[in-house]
Design goal:
With 350 residues, this protein is α/β, with parallel strands linked by helices. 26% of the residues lie in helices and 22% in strands. The chain contains nine helices and 18 strands. A nine-stranded mixed β-sheet has the order 6-5-4-3-2-1-16-17-18, covered by helices on one side. Strand 17 and strand 18 form a beta hairpin. Helix 2 runs parallel beside helix 4 and helix 4 runs parallel beside helix 5. Bound molecules: zinc ion. The site of zinc ion has 6 residues, from helix 3.
């Protein structure tokens, strides 16, 4: 009887200790997945990239509002991703929805490197000047400005700066090349943009066969320059939709040329998520699914993605801030998870 008991117990113990090791490995950041988190910052941006080696790149820090977004980012970074610090922070540009959380976050956890496009061009008195001052204070002695083509050195990932301070990578990279003259002839242009938006730091991340493109709030005419007459960036698996789905961006030439299989829109309930932009993304050739951080309440329900692909359904005041997560395996297979309903859907790189 004693022997029988022991032989039954042994495999159970082995199983428990194996799962403990796997769990510990994931918490310690030695898992071999690349993880990307879109923290819900109510129509701002806060995209956290954790490399298979456990290094981190945070792209923007949301709004300053009562430190809400800094706390949301800190929670995901520490409790979900198991990070103790942020290795690199890109502040894509100095608008309130991208730089707002930096002061509070830098007090909650160490940030080693601060990357930006150069000094703000919108330093008018009021909140913008306050946020600029807070950024300068938080980043003191740790600021640098990447140049086009520079790499952000996260081990195992190839992250190329594709846009900075209004300039675009000459390219083509990632298999890009001449684009269809039909697509590029006489595009509709908008007013030239010399604002902070057009100066956004943008990058292409490659991990084996997988690509992720984040050009922050790059605006319409520059989007067209990026793909016409030459598609400088090639095709990507995963696209963070430019500018939260606001119609200062979203040129169909761009959306159609990058050919994303999956698009993530970091809109708020009433910021971004414009109906015409949603339509353009959903119709883009090759797109399988659009995921949204919020149900857009500024457009018709049916122009949004299906409800199960939307992380937050409520107005900002009632919102608890569910995040979206992508996990990418070394072989290029990846999945997106909606943490509101725990829906996970699998995709494969081309
Ligand atoms: Zn923005």
């Amino acid at each position: 009887m004693k022997r029988l008991l022991r032989s039954r117990v042994a495999p159970i113990v082995a199983l428990v200790s194996l799962s403990a090791i796997v769990f510990a490995a994931q918490r310690g950041g030695t898992t071999r997945m690349l993880d990307i988190y879109w923290v819900d910052v109510e129509g701002g941006a806060a995209t956290l990239i954790v490399s298979p080696s456990g290094q981190s790149l945070l792209v923007d820090t949301g709004w300053r509002k009562d430190d809400r977004d800094a706390r949301r980012i800190h929670e995901v970074a520490t409790k979900v991703a198991g990070l103790k610090k942020i290795d690199y922070l890109i502040t894509t540009h100095f608008h309130a929805d991208h730089v707002g959380g930096v002061g509070a976050l830098s007090k909650l956890m160490p940030i080693d490197h601060f990357l930006d496009h150069g000094d703000t061009v919108e330093n008018r008195p009021g909140p913008a000047a306050d946020e600029w001052a807070i950024y300068l204070e938080a980043s003191k002695g740790k600021r640098s400005q990447p140049k086009l083509g520079d790499k952000i050195p996260l081990k195992g990932l190839d992250i190329t700066i594709a846009a900075v301070n209004g300039e675009l990578i000459p390219g083509p990279i990632n298999g890009g090349g001449p684009n269809s003259p039909e697509l590029c002839t006489d595009p509709l242009l908008k007013k030239p943009d010399n604002s902070e938006n057009g100066r956004s730091v943008g990058f292409l991340l490659q991990y084996g066969k997988f690509q992720f493109l984040d050009l922050a709030d790059l605006t319409w005419n520059k989007e067209i320059d990026m793909v016409c007459p030459v598609n400088r960036l090639g095709k990507v698996d995963l696209l963070q939709v430019n500018h939260h789905g606001m119609d200062l961006s979203g040129a169909p030439q761009f959306v159609n040329s990058v050919g994303a299989r999956v698009a993530i829109m970091n809109n708020g309930p009433r910021k971004g998520g414009i109906g015409s932009y949603l339509d353009i993304v959903k119709k883009a050739p090759g797109l399988e699914d659009l995921w949204q951080l919020h149900l857009s309440l500024v457009t018709e329900r049916e122009r949004n993605a299906p409800e199960e692909y939307i992380a937050n359904m409520d107005e900002e005041a009632a919102c608890t801030g569910h995040y979206l997560k992508a996990s990418i395996a070394p072989d290029g297979r990846y999945s997106i998870t909606n943490t509101r309903n725990n829906l996970t859907k699998a995709y494969a790189s081309r």
